[in-house]
Design brief:
By secondary structure, the protein is α/β, with parallel strands linked by helices. The chain contains ten helices and nine strands. Helix 2 links the parallel strand 2 and strand 3.
């Protein structure tokens, strides 16, 4: 039988993480699975509380980190433990703000691998807040031209938020944000893509890593960025190794969205500055890799 390991990165939001764990207990109709929880040095002490709560549970392993090392590196700690210590055949990495609702998630993930030999797999991810279907994140691998445009965009965003901080405009910005949000809410939510798709960029809220990926990689996400753009970097790594990236709507998960980062940044302006800082760094890393590989489009890896 295949060994399945779930890796959940925890930060601050204890009840959210517990709900994710409990949903796995409820819907994992499979005997050979374990759960690894990695606490990313939660300042509110909830990592310790989780370790105490699941101390005697045979399926749950809680790892406490000495510092917050970010999304990619934090998940990579759990991935390495799953691969080397628990000898996982498949590793499933959901965000802690997701809930499993599918009795056959594991069985179908294995079946799809046997049929398609994917490197990584993404399920149908439904936003619990809007009802939108979030996978696939992008329908193709990002090009170098689009990466350059993204770098310019976030540079301008950083300048805009700096000026707003200097001239004390957060109240006006929050008002404009609410107006924009109200307009967006009138639009129809993104519908479910009902057919399997290959070589798309997956949404990072839940990814299944197959034996083919685990054999080639000692990390789940490219380890340099603190957070953001992890999906594009992961797709890029798979493309270089000629591993299939598949979205399949036959498995489903709910996503509550942004529960952990909201515990850090209470105001919208602070959230945007946090996002812009780290997303700009991540995009620059992707651009550097593309430049080193002389990469411009997916055809360069075919």
């Amino acid at each position: 039988m295949n060994k399945i390991v779930f890796v959940i990165l925890h930060f601050n939001a204890m009840q959210i993480t517990i709900e994710c764990i409990e949903s796995i207990f409820k819907f994992a109709r499979y005997d050979y699975y374990s759960i690894v929880v990695v606490d990313n040095k939660s300042p509110n002490g909830t990592g310790i509380s989780l370790k105490e709560k699941y101390l005697n549970h045979p399926k749950v392993h809680v790892i406490l980190l000495d510092e917050n090392i970010g999304f990619a590196k934090g998940n990579n700690v759990g991935y390495k433990y799953a691969k080397e210590t628990l000898e996982a055949d498949f590793i499933i990495i959901p965000n802690n703000d997701t809930e499993f609702i599918d009795d056959h998630f594991i069985d179908n993930a294995i079946r799809i691998f046997n049929e398609s030999a994917y490197g990584i797999l993404g399920p149908n991810i439904i936003s619990a807040r809007t009802g939108a279907h979030q996978n696939p994140h992008k329908k193709e691998l990002v090009t170098r031209e689009k990466v350059v445009k993204a770098i310019r965009h976030y540079k301008n965003e950083r300048i805009k938020h700096l000026l707003m901080s200097i001239f004390n405009f957060p109240a006006m910005h929050n008002y404009l944000r609410k107006m924009k949000k109200a307009v967006k809410s009138e639009k129809v939510s993104r519908g479910k893509i009902t057919e399997q798709m290959t070589n798309v960029t997956l949404f990072g809220a839940c990814i299944v890593y197959s034996p083919l990926f685990i054999e080639k990689f000692n990390y789940a996400f490219y380890p340099e960025p603190f957070m953001y753009y992890d999906e594009d970097l992961l797709h890029y790594a798979c493309a270089k190794q000629h591993l299939k990236v598949i979205y399949d709507p036959s498995i489903t998960i709910y996503h509550k969205e942004k529960q952990a980062t909201q515990t850090i940044n209470r105001t919208y302006l602070k959230q945007r500055k946090f996002v812009n800082k780290h997303i700009t760094n991540s995009i620059k890393i992707l651009y550097r890799l593309m430049k080193e590989d002389n990469y411009y489009s997916i055809n360069d890896f075919k």
